[in-house]
Structures are given as structure tokens and as C-alpha cells.
Write a structure and sequence with these properties.
1149 residues, alpha+beta, Neuraminidase, 36 helices, repeat, WD repeat
């Protein structure tokens, strides 16, 4: 940046809207730089210093700087008390305002969220609050020594940190409002208490209240102005040939602001937002200023020099140096979550870190260290995986605690989103993945584990109480682990012919505690005792898995029973580890002082783990074993890809993404960072396929037709993929000797036989056809075969590869019926296996396989086609019973009966009708075939279903209705009504029962009328008119069909009139009710006519006398006399009724 010699930087501040970085320090140094990114360059970190401006105005050491994001202003201060506000004019930063109190050092400058007010705090307690234009709002001398200041997000409260470590809050007028309790200072651990000096003050290094950065109003106005100028330049000038229409575009009433490329992420209510960091490594994180349960963070042996919130408020970066060393150049940056959990760290041993800041994306940081400004790349641990050609990753949705799991198939560009709540972790394997989310509905926290395929379909699930900090999975089971325990889940895959299923020893899923499984063991000179260590990494093999321990060492445990069988000496600390394809070698990434991430390769030799290679001075960002070659490992030194064969390292091209596949000398990576900018709209551009240099060299030689040189290259650098390329090329060029040599190198016996077979083919065209078939170019091979009049060879080719549709297309016009049937049979079985039932039934019909055709139609629920088939088959067909049973299970009685009768099985037809409650049809079949009396069967069935409960009675009612016995059904409906009336059920329920019975009686009468209408010869008229065969109960039902329904209808109407104070209408309705004493309680009727004596005794109610209220005392008198002589009243109630009558008539008559 061209800093003066011996200059020291003290801070760095990154503008989140315009991407400017302000940094400054000793000798009045102040710089504004800008790290630009070339959008045309596919590399995500292609950067250049496009702005590098020195700002002159400070002579003393610049200590503070802050950005006004909304209005794009920069405010700085130095040790002399000078404050300068800088503004951007014509792409250059210049002074706008200067303030020099020259009495005390400025300890804090902060703008409120919208950038309209600024607060300046001096060490002597003076506070100035002003406006953007420079006007002073208030000024106050506080009787405390200040160390920092900060605005609350609402802009109405100012928070001050004092020199002795206290935190206090003032309102917008400068009045004291609140003292915040700093619980982090009230208690401390033993180490920090011993390290604390006597009378040492608690020095506040940083005090910041996180709030999201607003989009700059100034930049939006500038962008709007530029767009208007561009529109003016587009306006045509001069005289145009056609001037009927205006060439000026219609102005927009509202210009939509540019959308933020970062997805919106909701802030959980329980996430801390306010941070106070002290120099001695103590921090307090609070959810609000009144939080009584803050999060306390203690970083051991660290002196904090700076702390900054990440742009999304989810993490905090903390810079400092080790207290155990006198050299301040032993610096580090620790990353913690907003909840106080340590998630990562970075060490630097050459310079002293004095300032840190985040880029707006949260993926880069600027670090001020001595006279340098470092740009660091932040690598978050994204939750993602790969299933074959599908990328699986998790992202936070706009709904709180909701996460989307994206399944993106980049080959066919298809995506599937699966939504889960409280997502925790995921891991992937070749064909499936494990997704884990938290569930705490029952009060106890559990974790729900799902096994999903590449479209998000759940295949199996399980529950565990082990927190899924580490997850790994293979083809048979998954391992979930936290620091002190692990869970082994043996899941079930929906397949039966898997190769792994043959070697899989069934195990029992269960949870295991590390302390119970481990025993005392020596690793070198250090002895580890059970229960004093924790898991820091895991990886999985075929029948075992490995656990790395925080203090060093690797455990090997069985997947079948979770028992630890071996212990390997591996030095700590281990960040991650992976096994190769045949589980004979282990790659371990360690955290060492010289290089943050160093990779070491080990090999299993008997019961020992021996180191075979160590990649020194390599900062490993990602690594992946070859899927087929157990000796090859691809890893990234930052963005530079290297290939290691466990003996040497070869440098390759750059890879800008996370590696998820390494096979056939091709490394495939995905840029997760770009994916998560628009997580719901992934594109293929994020996938990068990098061919290894050896494969590129051989491909170039083959393209240049230098086959011998390519063979020499492969001899010097042997690899199966290189020989495969040579073999393919040699066969295509008819270089059979070289092709045979390549197949021998590959140990491919089938390839050698292919070369021999092609050599024996005399026709050159048929040779080319065989070569095209070998290269899987089947269409080209077919065309050559047909051109050579060898359709049989084309059919044979497609039969070998199992392409039955192509075989069908070739033989569908063939006169050979047997060949056509065979092709139809293959096509039918193909569709049957793929559960395409309609197509399978079509081809089974073409090959005359009636049994499988019926099975396909039944499985596909194609009962219309099945009915057509049943009518087309002969009567004595053996498949009639099968189709009849299928129709019966689906409730299709007519079709089932037709099938049974065609097969001459009337007993099965009768049983079908009875099972489906089609009693009329059953009676017809019984009469036609001289079978047993259906009436008796119906009565017996009705007796079995009739019971004391309403449910059984209703079932019997439905039975009679379906059988056409409407009168018997009406009797049951009336019986249900009478039973419910005795149980004091609601009146509307009783009315519905009586209405149902009456409707059934009307159905009975309607059926009789229909029979009379169709009886042309009056053969049954006399029988129908004669009711002598009816029981007395049935006759009463016919005579009083609607009387019960009318009774309760009038009862409900009378009550409605009384409640709505329509007394006269209520009286008339109650008089009508006196004709329905058979269905109603007379006491209820006459109480409504005369009044309720209980209400009369209550003086708060008017006399509830319907008749008296309308002056009908004669009716009232008769009603009262009837009530006095009712048998349902006891002697006490009669006396009360007499007293009520005396009181009523003495008062009103």
C-alpha cells in the first residue's frame, strides 16, 4: 500500500456497502483502499488493489475509525483529540468537517443505525452528540472515566464503558438510565484469578451492539442518478422519419432498489446481540440490555486486542496474543458463535495483530498487523454432501428455525427441496445421505435421523439422544458422535441384491459412552485415562470406524457392537481424517503451529498404524481419496490442487471449490459459497471438473495421433485410466496390437477377447459396428448393422445390453411371431419391474400372458380395463375367480358377481353380495339358483350387529337401508330416537333421528308406488294394498310417520320464541305442543305455557309466564292445573306449584 517506513497500523474497518477499507495508525497514517473483484474472472478470489488513497489531515497516531454506512461518510480520530469527517467526491475522499477539542483522547466514535446522529466519547467523561450536518444536539460532562461508547439499535440509548470495566446506559437526553450487571467480572476461574495483577483495572477492548447493516441511501441515490443519465443518452436526437410515437421511455414512478445478493436469515430471539470484551480474555454476550442470564466466555491465556461481529451477527472474531509468552507477535484470531462456542481459530507468528474487520459477505477479513494489511479468506464449515451427481446442502429459510435441504442434480439440472426444523448435521455416501434435526417437543431433546436418497425421499429413520457434532455414513450404517459418546445406527435399505448386503454382518443399533468403552492406554510417553478425553473427529470404513481424541490417539471400534478393538498413537491435535477406498490407509489433517492444516498419511500394518508420508508446509483446505485407486489422494493447498501417490506430490491446476469426487483422474468440486448466495436457484456454473495433468498429457498425445508416445507416457506413469484411454483409442483406430497390449495392462480379459473377435471379422463395416458397440455408441452400430443387412446382429447387441425397447422397435414389423412375442415379453417384464403397470399390461396382452396381464391391471388399479378383459374371456376361464376376488376387494359387486356366475359359482356370488351388503342382489341370486333363504341370513346378520350401543344400532340401520328394507330401518331409527330421548340427549339430535325415520318410511312408500307403476297386470296390487301382514309396530309407524319430528321441531321453535322474547308466538307454539305429549314430557310443555317455578323464586328475573305475559290467564290456569296433577311430580313439587299459582293469580288477576 506504500506505507511510510516503520509505520504501524492500529485498526482496519471495512465498508459493507462500497467495499472500501480504512486503515491507519502511527505517524498520522490513514489509508483508504479497495479490493476489487473482476467479475469476468471465474476465480472467486481474483482481486486487485483498485483504490489506494492516502488521507492527509492527522499528525498524531490515528486510533479510531468508523463508517457511516447509510450516508457513506468516514469518521476518524487521533491521540491529540482531532476528529475528521471524510466524504467521497468524484471518487476521491476529502475532508468535510473537523473538530478538535484538544483536551482529552477520543475513546469512542459511533453513528446510530440510520447514520443521522453521531456520539463522541472522550476519556475524561465528556460526551458530544451531534447530527450528520455537524449541529450539536447535546453535550455533557459525565463524572466517570470513559473507555468506549455504543448506540443501542433503536438510536434512543447510549451505552458507555468506563475505564474500570463498568457498563452504563444513558437516554437520548444524556440522563442516566441503567447500570448493566457484568456477571463475567463477578466470578472467575482459578487460572485467571492467579494471572490477574493486584489493583488491575478491567480494560474494555470492545463494546458493540450488533444490528444488520442498512443498504446505503447515498449509493442508492447515486445509482438512480446514473440510471437517469444513461436513459438520457439513449434518447434519439434530430428529426426522425417516423415521429408518431415518442422515442423517450416512460419514466418509472418508483425505482426498485437492487436486491441484496445475500439471502435473508432470521435472527433467533435467544441469540445474543450485545458484546463486551475485556483485555484479560473475558467476554459477556447479552440478548438485550436487561438480559439477566448473559453468556460468559473465557478464553484462557489470551490477551484480547480486538473483537468484531460478523455481518450476519452469528459469529464473533477475536484477535489477541498469548499471555504465556512475552513476544506479542505470537498472535491469533479466535472465532466463536454468538452463543459463546469456539468454532475455529487462526495463528500468526510473524506479526502483531492490532485490528480486524469483516467483509460484507462474511467470507473475507482484513487484518491489520504491524505495517501490513492482510486479506484473509474465511472458510465456514458448510453442511453439505454429494450423492453421485447430486449436491446436497443445507441453508436457512426466512421462517425462523426452518431450514431447506437442497438436492441439486447438476447433470440433469433438477432440484428438490426438503424442509426440516432445527437442522443439526448431514453426511453423505454414494447413493444416500443422513439428515439430522433436533426435536424437543416432549421436553427431552432428541435427534431425528433420516436416511434419504438423491431426491430427498426418506428411506429409513431413527432417534438418538447423542448430539450430532460428528456424522459419517457408509452403505450399511451411520455413526453419530459428540464429545463423550457415540451412536451406531444400522439402517435398512430398500434393496435385496446389494453386494454390501452379502458381506454385512447384522448389528444392533445403540448408544455407547466413550468412558465406558475406553481403558488406560499409553501413547508414547503420555498416558490417557478413561473419561478424561473427548472425540474431535471420526471417519467410517466397511466394518469399523475411527475416532480421533482431543489429546491425541485414534480408536478403532466395531460397527457391529461398538466395542473399541485397537488404539493407535497419533499426535494431537487432529482436525479431520478420511479412509481410502479399500480402508488400508488413513489421511489425517492436523493443526500445527507452523502450518495451520498439515496432512499426514498413515497405513494399517497389522495392529499398528504407521506413518508413510507427511506433506510439510502445505496448508490443506480440502482433500479426497481416489474412488478406485487406494494410493492416490487429491488435496488443496489453499486453491492449488496437488496429487499425492503416498511417495511424491505433483502440482496441478487451481481448484476453486470443495472437492466431492476424485475418480478416473478427474477432480470434481463445487463452490458452496456461490451456491448459498442464491440457495434455492443453483446452477451448473458452480461445478468445476479438473482433469489431472497426466490425463491431459495423454489426451493431447492421442488427439495429435501420437499413440506410441502415449503408450510410453503410460508406461512411465502407469494408471488404469490412462491405459483405458489408450485401449479405447487403439480399438477405434484399428490398432489391434496396441489395443491388446493396453487391455493386458488393464488385466481386462473381456477386452482381449473383443480384440480377437474383431480381428476375425472379415467385413470392415461390421468391424466398425462392433467398435461402436464397444464404445457404447449403439445407434451408430445399429445403423451399420442394418445397412449391412444384419438386423440379427443389431437385435443381439441390444439384447446383450438389455435395451428391450430397441429390440421391440426392430422386431415389431417382423413376420416371425415367436420373436415378436419374446420381445413383447421382455418389454412387459421391463415395465413390470419398473412398476409401470399400464404399459406392462399392454405388452403382456401382446405376448398373450393373461395371468400377468391381470396381475398388472390389478396392481395398477385399472379395473375398467380389467372389466373389459373379463367380458372378453370365455366363461370357463380359470382367471374368472381371480378377477372376481379382485373386484370383491374393491367393492365392485356387479363385476364380481358377473365373473363368478360366468364360472358357474353362484355360492361365491352370493357370498360376495352378502359381504358387500347387497342383499337385494343376494336375494335374486338365491331365488334363481334355489339357494338358502336370504331373509333369514339378513336377520341373523342384523341380530349380530344390533347391540346396546348407538354405534351397533346405526350399523344395523345402514344394513337394512342397503338391503332395501326401509320400514325395518325406520323402526330402528325411531328406537334410537326413543333411547336418546330417555338419555336426555339434545333436542336437535332427537329431531334428526325422527326425521331420518320419517324419510325412510317415505322411501318405503315410494318403492311401493314404483312397483305399482311397473305392475302392468295388477298381479301384486292387492298384495301391496293389503297391510294385514304388517306388525302393529309397523302399522303405527306408517300412521305416525312425521309426528315425532314435528314434536321436537315445535319444541325447538317454542324455545327459540321464548329466548327471543316473542311471547305470543311462544304461547301459540306451546298450545300446539299439547298434542304431542306422547313424545314430549308434559311438564316441560306446561311449564313453558305457565312458567318455571324456579325462576319465579329468583327475584332477579321477571315472571317467566308465557300466558300471563300476554293476558291469557285462562290458558295459564289450565296449564297450572295440569302441572299440579302430573304423576311425575312429587309432593314437595306439587306444594311449590300451588304456591306459585297462588302468587301468580293473586298478583295479576
Amino acid at each position: 500500500m506504500g506505507l511510510p517506513e516503520n509505520s504501524q497500523l492500529h485498526f482496519s474497518e471495512w465498508n459493507h456497502n462500497s467495499n472500501f477499507i480504512a486503515c491507519g495508525g502511527a505517524l498520522g497514517t490513514l489509508k483508504v483502499v479497495k479490493i476489487g473483484m473482476d467479475v469476468r474472472d471465474p476465480k472467486p478470489n481474483a482481486s486487485a488493489l483498485i483504490v489506494n488513497q492516502s488521507l492527509e489531515g492527522h499528525n498524531a497516531t490515528v486510533l479510531n475509525a468508523t463508517w457511516n454506512e447509510n450516508n457513506q461518510k468516514l469518521t476518524t480520530s487521533d491521540t491529540s483529540g482531532l476528529i475528521i469527517v471524510w466524504g467521497l467526491f468524484n471518487d476521491q475522499w476529502a475532508e468535510e468537517m473537523i473538530n478538535n477539542r484538544n483536551k482529552s483522547v477520543v475513546v469512542g466514535i459511533c453513528w446510530n443505525v440510520d447514520g443521522t446522529k453521531i456520539a463522541i466519547a472522550y476519556a475524561d467523561g465528556n460526551v458530544i452528540v451531534g447530527t450528520l450536518e455537524g449541529n450539536r444536539i447535546w453535550n455533557k460532562e459525565l463524572e466517570i472515566q470513559l473507555a468506549s461508547c455504543e448506540w443501542a439499535p433503536d438510536g434512543d440509548m447510549l451505552i458507555f464503558g468506563t475505564a474500570d470495566g463498568k457498563v452504563t446506559v444513558y437516554d437520548d437526553t444524556g440522563s442516566h438510565y441503567l447500570d448493566i450487571q457484568m456477571q463475567c467480572l463477578e466470578s472467575e476461574d482459578l487460572e485467571q484469578a492467579l494471572a490477574k495483577k493486584e489493583n488491575q483495572k478491567e480494560e474494555i477492548i470492545c463494546m458493540k451492539y450488533w444490528s444488520p447493516t442498512l443498504k446505503s441511501k447515498a449509493l442508492m441515490e447515486l445509482q438512480e442518478k446514473e440510471e437517469k443519465e444513461q436513459e438520457k443518452e439513449k434518447v434519439l436526437t434530430g428529426t426522425a422519419v417516423f415521429t408518431n410515437f415518442s422515442t423517450r421511455p416512460t419514466p418509472k414512478d418508483h425505482i426498485e432498489p437492487e436486491k441484496n445478493p445475500e439471502p435473508y436469515q432470521p435472527v433467533p430471539a435467544d441469540r445474543p446481540r450485545f458484546m463486551v470484551a475485556y483485555a484479560r480474555g473475558v467476554m459477556q454476550l447479552m440478548r438485550s440490555l436487561s438480559d439477566t442470564e448473559p453468556v460468559v466466555v473465557r478464553l484462557k491465556n489470551l490477551k484480547i486486542t480486538g473483537a468484531k461481529w460478523s455481518p450476519n451477527g452469528a459469529f464473533i472474531a477475536i484477535s489477541g496474543h498469548d499471555l504465556n509468552t512475552e513476544d506479542p507477535r505470537h498472535s491469533s484470531v479466535h472465532f466463536i458463535s454468538a452463543y459463546g462456542q469456539v468454532v475455529g481459530f487462526f495463528q500468526h507468528f510473524e506479526t502483531r495483530i492490532t485490528g480486524i474487520c469483516w467483509e460484507a459477505s462474511g467470507l473475507r477479513m482484513a487484518i491489520a498487523a504491524d505495517g501490513n494489511l492482510f486479506i484473509g479468506h474465511v472458510r465456514p464449515e458448510f453442511k453439505w454432501g454429494a450423492i453421485e451427481d447430486t449436491i446436497v446442502y443445507a441453508y436457512q429459510k426466512e421462517e425462523q428455525y426452518q431450514y431447506g435441504i437442497m438436492f441439486y442434480d447438476y447433470k440433469i439440472d433438477e432440484k428438490t427441496i426438503k424442509t426440516v426444523s432445527y437442522f443439526e448435521n448431514l453426511a453423505s455416501f454414494k447413493e444416500h445421505c443422513i439428515i439430522i434435526n433436533r426435536q424437543d417437543d416432549a421436553g427431552t431433546i432428541q435427534y431425528f435421523c433420516q436416511l434419504c436418497n438423491n431426491i430427498g425421499t426418506s428411506l429409513d429413520y431413527n432417534m438418538t439422544t447423542v448430539r450430532p457434532k460428528f456424522v459419517c455414513v457408509n452403505g450399511m450404517c451411520a455413526v453419530v458422535a459428540c464429545e463423550d459418546r457415540y451412536f451406531i445406527w444400522h439402517f435398512v435399505l430398500p434393496r435385496t441384491n446389494s453386494v454390501q448386503a452379502g458381506i454385512h454382518v447384522p448389528g444392533k443399533s445403540g448408544e455407547y459412552i466413550l468412558e465406558e468403552q475406553q481403558r488406560g492406554i499409553e501413547f508414547g510417553t503420555k498416558r490417557l485415562l478413561g473419561g478424561k478425553d473427548s472425540i474431535c473427529a471420526i471417519c467410517i470404513g466397511d466394518t469399523f470406524f475411527l475416532m480421533a481424541l482431543q489429546n491425541g490417539g485414534v480408536y478403532r471400534a466395531n460397527l457391529s457392537d461398538g466395542v473399541i478393538t485397537s488404539r493407535y498413537a497419533v499426535t494431537a491435535p487432529i482436525d479431520s481424517m478420511k479412509l481410502n477406498c479399500d480402508f488400508t490407509r488413513l489421511a489425517v489433517v492436523k493443526l500445527v503451529e507452523q502450518v495451520p492444516f498439515n496432512i499426514t498419511i498413515y497405513e494399517f500394518v497389522g495392529d499398528e498404524l504407521q506413518q508413510i508420508y507427511n506433506c510439510e508446509k502445505k496448508d490443506v483446505w480440502d482433500y479426497q481419496w481416489d474412488a478406485n485407486d487406494s494410493h492416490m489422494l487429491a488435496f488443496k493447498d489453499k486453491h492449488k490442487m496437488l496429487i499425492c501417490d503416498c511417495s511424491s506430490v505433483l502440482e496441478q491446476s487451481a481448484v476453486y471449490g470443495n472437492i466431492f469426487s476424485f475418480q478416473n483422474l478427474v477432480v470434481t468440486s463445487v463452490n458452496i459459497e456461490k451456491l448459498l448466495i442464491t440457495p434455492e436457484s443453483p446452477t451448473k456454473a458452480v461445478i468445476q471438473e479438473s482433469m489431472i495433468k497426466a490425463k491431459q498429457d495423454v489426451l493431447s498425445l492421442l488427439n495429435a495421433m501420437k499413440l506410441d508416445e502415449a503408450i510410453d507416457y503410460a508406461e512411465k506413469n502407469p494408471h488404469a485410466e490412462l491405459w483405458n484411454m489408450i485401449a479405447q483409442y487403439s480399438v477405434f483406430k484399428h490398432q489391434f496390437d496396441r489395443a491388446e497390449h493396453a487391455f493386458v495392462k488393464l488385466e481386462d480379459y473381456a477386452g482381449v477377447q473383443l480384440v480377437k473377435r474383431i480381428r476375425n471379422i472379415p467385413s470392415n463395416e461390421l468391424r466398425n459396428a462392433e467398435i461402436f458397440a464397444f464404445r457404447e455408441q449403439f445407434e451408430d452400430a445399429k445403423d451399420i448393422f442394418l445397412h449391412s443387412d444384419r438386423k440379427d446382429l443389431a437385435i443381439e447387441m441390444y439384447e446383450k445390453v438389455g435395451d428391450h425397447r430397441a429390440v421391440y422397435e426392430l422386431v415389431k414389423n417382423d413376420p416371425d411371431e415367436e420373436r415378436k412375442k419374446e420381445a413383447f415379453k421382455e418389454m412387459a417384464e421391463f415395465h413390470y419391474e419398473n412398476m409401470d403397470w399400464e404399459e406392462a399390461a399392454k405388452f403382456f396382452a401382446l405376448c398373450e400372458d393373461i395371468k400377468m396381464q391381470i396381475d398388472s391391471l390389478i396392481r395398477g388399479n385399472c379395473f375398467g380395463e380389467l372389466e373389459v378383459l373379463a367380458r372378453a374371456l370365455p366363461d370357463e376361464s380359470d382367471y374368472m375367480v381371480t378377477m372376481g376376488d379382485a373386484f370383491t376387494t374393491r367393492g365392485m359387486c356387479d363385476q364380481a358377481v358377473e365373473c363368478y356366475l360366468k364360472k358357474k359359482l353362484p355360492d361365491r356370488a352370493l357370498h360376495c353380495c352378502m359381504e358387500l351388503n347387497q342383499w337385494q342382489k343376494a336375494q335374486f341370486i338365491a331365488d334363481a339358483n334355489h339357494m338358502e333363504n336370504v331373509e333369514g341370513l339378513l336377520g341373523k346378520y342384523a341380530e349380530e350387529t344390533t347391540g346396546a350401543s348407538d354405534e351397533k344400532s346405526v350399523a344395523t340401520l345402514g344394513l337394512y337401508m342397503r338391503a332395501g328394507r326401509h320400514l325395518d330401518a325406520a323402526k330402528i331409527a325411531f328406537d334410537i330416537a326413543n333411547d336418546r330421548r330417555e338419555k336426555m340427549m339434545p333436542i336437535d339430535d332427537l329431531k334428526q333421528c325422527y326425521v331420518l325415520g320419517a324419510l325412510l318410511v317415505e322411501e318405503h312408500r315410494q318403492s311401493i308406488r314404483e312397483l305399482k307403476r311397473i305392475d302392468k297386470y295388477n298381479m301384486v296390487e292387492n298384495t301391496l294394498d293389503d297391510e294385514s301382514g304388517l306388525t302393529a309396530e309397523q302399522t303405527r309407524i306408517l300412521e305416525n310417520t312425521w309426528k315425532g319430528a314435528e314434536a321436537f321441531h315445535y319444541m325447538m321453535l317454542a324455545q327459540k320464541h321464548l329466548l327471543t322474547n316473542r311471547i305470543e308466538d311462544a304461547l301459540q307454539t306451546c298450545v300446539i305442543l299439547s298434542d304431542y305429549e306422547e313424545y314430549l314430557d308434559p311438564a316441560e310443555i306446561y311449564k313453558m305455557i305457565g312458567g318455571d317455578m324456579k325462576k319465579i323464586e329468583n327475584k332477579d328475573f321477571l315472571l317467566a309466564l308465557a300466558a300471563a305475559n300476554v293476558g291469557q290467564f285462562g290458558i295459564c290456569s289450565r296449564a297450572m292445573m295440569r302441572l299440579e296433577v302430573l304423576d311425575t311430580l312429587d309432593e314437595a313439587e306439587r306444594e311449590e306449584m300451588k304456591d306459585l299459582s297462588f302468587e301468580l293469580f293473586s298478583q295479576y288477576v
